[in-house]
Amino acid sequence: MKNIYLLLISLIVLLASCSTPKNISYFQGIESLTAEQREAMNQKYVPRICIDDALIIYVTSPDKESVSPFSPPPYGYYAPMEAEIGISATTQNLYTYLVDEEGYITFPVLGRIHVAGLTINESIRMLQDMIRVSAPAAVVSVQIANFKVGILGEVKLPNIYTIKTPRLSILDLIALGGDMTITGDRKNVWLVRDNNGAKEHIHLDLTDPAIFASPYYYLQQNDMVYVMPNKAQKRSSEYSNVDNVRATLLSIIVSSVSMIVSAILTIRGQNL
User: Fold this and answer.
1) Taking the chain (272 residues) in consecutive chunks of 10 residues, what is each chunk's mean pLDDT?
2) How far is CA 87 from the centre of its chain?
3) Is 222 left (phi over 0), alpha (psi -120 to 50) or beta?
């Protein structure tokens, strides 16, 4: 009878250890949201130019001579009837303009122009209006060259990632990081953002479907995301290597004693 009790206790412990923790799943309860709640999660993200952004700005026109003053080499040295030189990775830096700490870039002919806080489309319209005074057919292209974000903590691939598109969500970054580890606390994710020199620390809960409606769902350049470890991981990290060895030895001793006791009980049962 005692052996049966021991077997039942072992099965209960095994089943308990196999149960799925409730905090592992993302967006819990999203299936029960109403249509209105789902609609509220839809949001448009429009990236804005920030201090320390590196902007790639191209100015082109069918009339190459008219826009040559607004373009550094090779276009700056374009001669009439000369074949157009393609833009390669080695010449891209010639078209890159750094947004200074006051939010300005220094652009050929136009001088210092304030661009911080503008969207990409707003900056394009502004530059085109200024350049078309001298070159009516000018077309301007603006891109952010150094859109980078980082992720640390309980993810499989912590790193700083340079992104080609400025439209990046917190979920996109976690996917780039190889997803959270099983020891990552999905309720305890922190976003560190530099907002015009002031640091913001934003707490995010990825088990809550309201994350889709959060103003911090989409990331900005230079954002840093930190995934905190869960309670089990924190507890395990408190033990030193010596403690781990002691715990292992204790576990072996307890298991051995349990086996000896079980064998004795079995022998006694057979003798009876």
Assistant:
1) 50 46 71 73 80 90 90 50 42 74 93 94 96 94 89 94 85 93 92 84 92 90 91 62 60 66 63 59
2) 30
3) left
